[in-house]
Amino acid sequence: xxxxxxxxxxxxxxxxxxxxxxxxxxxxxxxxxxxxxxxxxxxxxxxxxxxxxxxxxxxxxxxxxxxxxxxxxxxxxxxxxxxxxxxxxxxxxxxxxxxxxxxxxxxxxxxxxxxxxxxxxxxxxxxxxxxxxxxxxxxxxxxxxxxxxxxxxxxxxxxxxxxxxxxxxxxxxxxxxxxxxxxxxxxxxxxxxxxxxxxxxxxxxxxxxxxxxxxxxxxxxxxxxxxxxxxxxxxxxxxxxxxxxxxxxxxxxxxxxxxxxxxxxxxxxxxxxxxxxxxxxxxxxxxxxxxxxxxxxxxxxxxxxxxxxxxxxxxxxxxxxxxxxxxxxxxxxxxxxxxxxxxxxxxxxxxxxxxxxxxxxxxxxxxxxxxxxxxxxxxxxxxxxxxxxxxxxxxxxxxxxxxxxxxxxxxxxxxxxxxxxxxxxxxxxxxxxxxxxxxxxxxxxxxxxxxxxxxxxxxxxxxxxxxxxxxxxxxxxxxxxxxxxxxxxxxxxxxxxxxxxxxxxxxxxxxxxxxxxxxxxxxxxxxxxxxxxxxxxxxxxxxxxxxxxxxxxxxxxxxxxxxxxxxxxxxxxxxxxxxxxxxxxxxxxxxxxxxxxxxxxxxxxxxxxxxxxxxxxxxxxxxxxxxxxxxxxxxxxxxxxxxxxxxxxxxxxxxxxxxxxxxxxxxxxxxxxxxxxxxxxxxxxxxxxxxxxxxxxxxxxxxxxxxxxxxxxxxxxxxxxxxxxxxxxxxxxxxxxxxxxxxxxxxxxxxxxxxxxxxxxxxxxxxxxxxxxxxxxxxxxxxxxxxxxxxxxxxxxxxxxxxxxxxxxxxxxxxxxxxxxxxxxxxxxxxxxxxxxxxxxxxxxxxxxxxxxxxxxxxxxxxxxxxxxxxxxxxxxxxxxxxxxxxxxxxxxxxxxxxxxxxxxxxxxxxxxxxxxxxxxxxxxxxxxxxxxxxxxxxxxxxxxxxxxxxxxxxxxxxxxxxxxxxxxxxxxxxxxxxxxxxxxxxxxxxxxxxxxxxxxxxxxxxxxxxxxxxxxxxxxxxxxxxxxxxxxxxxxxxxxxxxxxxxxxxxxxxxxxxxxxxxxxxxxxxxxxxxxxxxxxxxxxxxxxxxxxxxxxxxxxxxxxxxxxxxxxxxxxxxxxxxxxxxxxxxxxxxxxxxxxxxxxxxxxxxxxxxxxxxxxxxxxxxxxxxxxxxxxxxxxxxxxxxxxxxxxxxxxxxxxxxx
Length: 1205
Prior knowledge:
- It is built from 21 helices and 47 strands.
- By secondary structure, it is an alpha+beta fold.
- Strands 1, 4, 7, 8 and 9 form a 5-stranded mixed β-sheet that branches. A 5-stranded antiparallel β-sheet has the order 6-5-2-3-11, with no helix packed on it. A 5-stranded antiparallel β-sheet has the order 13-42-43-36-39, with no helix packed on it.
């Protein structure tokens, strides 16, 4: 399409924008829907459509007509189309997306067609989705039928024009369904081309007719396919399966067969066990073939001398297509059978567990002509369910296409993680090490270090430092190295002492091997004894035997972390003698899945298919269901049970596609289909939860729903007292607090643990691949992700929103817009001031009820020095070079004093900071009126409009850039001119650009600010430690005095602040502050960081350099992402106190609130504070190193981290 030729312009041209409809908008009203409207802006003219209430797929069919001032400039104009959600409660709106259309894409009337645009974000943190159908063209005819609402137009015609919108409600619904059906068809097309709808005769605005799809056929038939909004598509749905043969939720007497498997649907099977044969007149290899209708199962080949198979075949009763089951005996590869045994299905008995297995019996084998062949076959045939013992080992009829060698990979199995230990090796020192010399007559100080090998794990100590009290052949390290080992202990600890020669080569000067099985085990924090081990070295001329001093221990008091801490399913220590009795049972019925995404294509199949199986993990027990072959709606109906040792844990269930079913498949990695996590503390005891969980997988193209997993879950409580008591115990074993491990060490040990578990489970039969273990254990949860960062940020915002709500409530009370409420608020405030002892009881009682329900001295002057490039006439460079800059904050100057100083001119180059000279200045600040000067400190920093009608951050940044352009353009036309480079340097145009140096400088500035609080915390900790009894006694006495006389607290604090200020007056700075290279981290910056800071935007560096910097930023962002997520988790735990997400924890907290409300009302506040303070400041001999019960209770509360992808 092209813009109309300028020669044809008449001055009466109008730009018509037809807003057809939108699809799959983001719900923003808090109720799963939105009330959208469209706002279009063109050349200071702004028009909007009507509001469609509660509609995520609205149809408008409205024309918005704009006046075109000059059609010649249309190609250079931009059309802004924005979609908003209107809030009925307030005069505000939510952003739903925007579309920007260039004028060059606007065509003539009659030539344009409807365009489908994907809604774009406004900023990084915008939540946007959906599409918008728009048609735009230029016309010269009058539009007299416009139904237009002008929002804030300026320029052009001021009269709103009417567009006929006499479309009935039924027609609107039909248009919407056809519009959504088209979009659904486009997404299912998958051919990369987007089909655009065509709307004929738009001028008359008749009901929508979409010619890209066949029209609706008369008569009965399925209606158009409609999109469900995101809140329903990805939400949890309650189901009502027939568990144990009875519909869930209905009370009925369960039969004996359902007494064990009562969380799954009964599945009837015909079982055929082929044991052995005798007296057969065959030779060579013999196989048995079990046939039932079109289903056929074949046993393994056995020799005629040993006719024993002992194999079980299971045929689903739903697929039985015959009245008899036949068992054929074949010789070798011959097609003709030599004998058979058959059974009538009506005469086959039914076995009901827990009856003993049906005994196999001998049956005569019939020959091909119907006579007796003389042989016998031992067989047992019965009807049963999946509760039968033979179910797990049976060949299933739906696996008939699976190669016999791959049958073992589709069976259900139970796995156990290896028992893992932390191996602590303390490398203390070495003696008489035979060092390597560079050559005769040359002496050097050896660079000795110790390297330890345990299996594939290698760790190294630092190089021993020089010590004047020790010989250089007696290095000293005293470092702890941690390893992960598994039972049975087959590895050895290899300690090697190495000498670094020439700065690169590490030469072994001694080694020793120690079996891990010989290492002493410990269950507490009591250290084990150290030992000396002789080093074996190749230097036979050494006069003394070298030896190394080690302390070795297997720490059984730790829990070996194999999962992410937020998703842990087991927190027990390794040593079994420290285990507590279990508090309940977890039972999960894995029923089936629906709507799975096709993962592969097989020959002879028209569409895709999947060979899916489930893996569930809780504690050290892993379970794997059987693989259902060639099905996108598999039914497993398998039930598993785990012992629960801690209710504040998570069970993980994942669905995979089995890649080992196809023998010719070169890919042996099982593809992930989806994952479900369930936190046990959110489950009520003895209740059966039957839900379908959406399986969500994040791909490079976005989140995809790969199906739904149907589960039945029940948590049984063995002892309610023990379960409630668990909430007051520390989450991790004692040694994690008495001898804590660092974050980086835990991360490294977790990776080693994952390797050990994956290596053990990959050797099982059928194996659990490493890709399964990694997906189950969330091996990549710490990797930086913009999506996770935004999710954690909004989690944190959600936590802070409650505080913002309180602040807004107070602000509303202050505004007196509701006089009655404000009067009550003031009365309550005065009542609490008069009776402060009621504050805490009221808060706890409320919590319990909620659970149940420029002329300013503070400015800066900037002085810069430049080199004039215009002096030399032959100089081709017209840009003045910067020499340096000085900033002076006026508030740091004393009035009427003349400051004469030389300021260093510092400039940051790509090679580092450089001093380019000194600038000598004489500065004096005169004060006309001291009262006005002091009054300025109490006034707002910016003018009033910045607070009454504030501008957004992004808008201010854009306006500042435009201001810089305007100032630079004006000053560049002066004589002599001030170049743009001078204005940019003076106004700091690049202060917002990313810089690693600035980031570190700001971080350490923040650390310096927080250091005072850290100092106070350390002072209190020193007082608590009672290392200085006199000081601690005085501290306790002052505390009790302040408790008895609380009215002295604020006067004492202010008096102390005044005394500190007076004391520091004599040490006040005598010189005005200037640019500090140390605070700016300009002296210690790395060259690559400087090169990155001076890089252009976008970058001009090579691929390898950009990749290295990107990886560095990702690693830093990953740590920040983890910290933000942890902060959000703490806030969400506080919210979970009253949310009933964990019913037991909320019940405990409500009881605590009620008891505390009564207790704080009865007991005086002073006594409560005094007792609490004395308890907190008690000497260490009366304390334990474990966290308090309140802190342990808080750490066990659930957070929203379980819901993150």
